[in-house]
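Troubleshooting log. The previous run stalled partway through. Resubmitting the same two chains, unchanged.
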Amino acid sequence: MTGSLSIAGLGPGDQALITPEVSAALAAATDILGYAPYVARVPPREGLVLHPSDNRMELQRATDALRLAAEGRHVVVVSSGDPGVFAMASAVFEALEAAPHWQGLAIRVLPGITAMLAAAAHAGAPLGHDFCAINLSDNLKPWSTIEKRLQLAAEADFAIALYNPRSASRPDGFGRALALLNDAGHGDRLVIFARAVSTPEERIETVRLRDARPDMADMRTLVIVGNAAMRRVGRWVYAPRHAR
Amino acid sequence: MTGSLSIAGLGPGDQALITPEVSAALAAATDILGYAPYVARVPPREGLVLHPSDNRMELQRATDALRLAAEGRHVVVVSSGDPGVFAMASAVFEALEAAPHWQGLAIRVLPGITAMLAAAAHAGAPLGHDFCAINLSDNLKPWSTIEKRLQLAAEADFAIALYNPRSASRPDGFGRALALLNDAGHGDRLVIFARAVSTPEERIETVRLRDARPDMADMRTLVIVGNAAMRRVGRWVYAPRHAR
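Second attempt completed without errors. Output:
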């Protein structure tokens, strides 16, 4: 009885953005665990047990997944986007560290198209130069750390991908982030609001940072603050390859 | 006669990491353009014209691709990894900006699994917290800009993905980058050297930064400098979800 655990990325929404590697893992799975909306993206079939769970249950879900794999099941933990970017892979390794007897299990992380890559592709090429990714959720880190990173990222002239910019339980942070970047002299920057990328509800909007309003982002939005050189061409934006 | 241009990411090497969206674009193409080793990854077939070209020919290649699409061809420009991350998408938009008469063309950017996501997945979850990506090539930007960004990224405690760390024509920059990070007090950090990820030659090695040597990286290596919290668990490394 040899089980396995794959931590897989479903990409941003479009089935055509799920890698064949992930599709094969889903086809071979006996059990799927994940946040309910992501589990709902896996087509049900005879013999496949779906274990949807709530947001903020990451560590419990990771432990459950390891236990099922130890029992001989073929388990896939699904994340949206890439499982290693603000998603389930870290939680699984955290659970694994707490349970050394499971460290011999067959574990694989299967990469996926993370939101910023899909958003960038549909907007043009805003990440064509050096960039960073910051999770704006302060559930697991102090807001002061987020502010410090935004400040340093602005000083470095990185393009900045902002994950989880705004949710019902965190309505204010994104506005503070915009204010900080404005105060840092970044009002001229182009900011991309990419909502529900690669789904039928996709909407991409680009404005100057000084014109950006907090309510332009919600839970399904990925925000990219362009670097100083980012330019418009036609309906696209892009970061030139040369930098000073 | 309506042509099209797709700028597509082939992922890090494994066919199972090419998205169905990209596979469909390749299947519908009449012409493939790209750096020769990437074009060589596209299976030849009757009626498909392959246009391999040299490194550093990006802008010429982009212009050629636009012209072919304007002539009614179905053109795919291929990049390794993701086309928007230090790859061809920026060059195409640069060429497009110089040629406004082509701005009505049907252009799409098709995302791919960029090297840092594949490297991270096979190493564990080093990008599970805030991170940045820096291209160490100083062909198109001054080395002083790279040093400044490394310094600020270190101060921000980002995990740092280093693309193009070292090549025959740029043998010294990576050693200077390691020295800078050491001097910034980062000697204790774990550094991942991920070579030829997802190919049969894949090799992943993790050492403390103070023990990292420049010759551990070459053209096919993606380097990830972990954040302060990055930890080993079994054969894996991961960035915990919590941060101070």
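Takeaways: Residues 143-156 of chain A form the longest helix (14 residues). The two ends of chain A are 58 Å apart (CA to CA).
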